[in-house]
Design a protein that fits this description.
- This protein is an alpha+beta fold.
- It has eleven helices and 17 strands.
- The strands form five sheets. The chain has a five-stranded mixed sheet with strand order 15-14-13-16-17, with helices on one face.
- Helix 3 packs antiparallel against helix 4, helix 3 runs parallel beside helix 5 and helix 6 runs antiparallel to helix 7.
- Its main location: other.
- One of its GO terms (cellular component) is cell envelope.
């Protein structure tokens, strides 16, 4: 049958619409550039999803270090990274932009340049600030002239000053920007710098970004996640505040010590308190048995325990493993005190002891006074012997 000419405009319009929809579905962004001095290294392009990094593509670099990755444009701002081994460059993508990165290995994490995205440039600023903060924190923690309280207070002041600067100049200044979202999830070691589980002020920062993302990126999964974090944080803070208000302190039950007490169940179901070990030299150890290198470290601790336990050394080891059965299996033959924190890496004990990486240990003297953390110990045998001799 011959097609009526009057139907042609509608058919053309429908065809054009179909082409337009197809082109929308095929919108892509591109990340290209060069990373020199990395011949034969594998460069990974990863999406930083809410569940962690997901590999999208990779390339083995040649003499010139050139690379190019292309991916479907996200519906809302999304986060990616370029990685060679432990060297990482963080990126944000909003639409169909072309982002050009130039760097040299092995200093690509700090020495790169980025073009084509103001947000990626701001994320670089934030990453460099976070690296600088980490360096200053480690310098304080490794300072042998500082006691535990001085170290803790100095680190706390540095972190608070950092948070104030980032909130003032980035988060509250432009909460709708991807770089503000990125700032909320910066870490020191394994812990968030902005912690909505503990701080009402940090909750406000999460809420500000969440509200802005509702406006600029409605229904995005990251915006919903921010809301959930802020709401849960407010609940947690409210519960803690109510508990503190309801508790009356009985002065007769106060145990005066120079250490923050920890009370957890050991692998036999018995409650073990850190302060009950007063009179002994104690190695307080935070450990994950499921982590790489665990077996070797446990063997080293066995040597220390065997040498000094008879002279008054005790090990109080806190497992942060999520699987209780696995932990019990791993610790069944260990001779020291093995307890498990059911909160895992979200434990408040990690916050109280300013634990930035795991494994970590502290040395406690016979008076229940915390003396040094691992970063301040150059010769473990010498330190233990000195404490035992006091």
């Amino acid at each position: 049958m011959k097609q009526s000419l009057t139907h042609l405009p509608a058919l053309v319009a429908a065809a054009l619409m179909a082409v337009g929809l197809a082109s929308c579905d095929n919108k892509k962004f591109r990340v290209d550039g060069t990373i020199t001095d990395a011949k034969d290294s594998v460069l990974y392009f990863e999406n930083m999803s809410l569940d962690g990094p997901v590999a999208i593509d990779s390339v083995k670099l040649g003499d010139d270090g050139a690379f190019s990755f292309s991916e479907k444009s996200p519906e809302a701002p999304e986060f990616y990274r370029l990685r060679i081994a432990g060297q990482i460059i963080n990126l944000s993508v909003d639409s169909t932009e072309t982002i050009t990165v130039k760097a040299a290995y092995p200093t690509m994490a700090t020495g790169y340049t980025v073009e084509g995205s103001p947000e990626c440039a701001t994320i670089k600023e934030l990453a460099l600030k976070q690296i600088d903060l980490l360096g200053r924190v480690l310098a304080v923690e490794r300072n042998n002239t500082l006691g535990f309280d001085q170290t803790r207070d100095s680190v706390a002041r540095m972190i608070e000053a950092y948070k104030h600067e980032i909130k003032l100049n980035y988060i509250f200044k432009a909460p709708m920007r991807p770089s503000s979202y990125f700032a909320l999830f910066q870490t020191l070691g394994s812990r968030l710098i902005f912690d909505p589980r503990e701080s009402e002020d940090d909750i406000k920062a999460f809420a500000a970004v969440a509200t802005s993302w509702d406006t600029y990126h409605p229904n995005s999964i990251r915006g919903k996640n921010l809301h959930n974090i802020a709401i849960q944080g407010m609940r947690n803070v409210r519960i803690v505040r109510n508990q503190r208000a309801a508790q009356a302190i009985d002065a007769s039950k106060v145990n005066t010590t120079n250490i923050i007490d920890i009370a957890l169940l050991d692998n036999k179901g018995q409650a073990r308190r850190l302060t009950d070990l007063k009179g002994k030299v104690v190695m307080l150890d935070f450990h994950v048995f499921g982590a790489d290198g665990s077996t070797k470290r446990i063997m080293q601790m066995r040597d220390i325990y065997n040498k000094y336990h008879g002279r008054g050394l005790e090990i109080y080891q806190i497992s942060l493993d999520p699987d209780e059965h696995f932990w019990k299996t791993q610790t069944a033959a260990l001779p020291w005190i093995s307890v498990r924190d059911p909160q895992g890496i979200q434990s408040n004990n990690l916050v109280l002891y300013n634990v930035r990486s795991i494994p970590t240990f502290f040395l406690i003297d016979k008076t229940n006074t915390l003396r040094k953390r691992d970063a301040q110990v150059k010769d473990l045998d010498a330190e233990i012997q000195a404490l035992l001799a006091e």
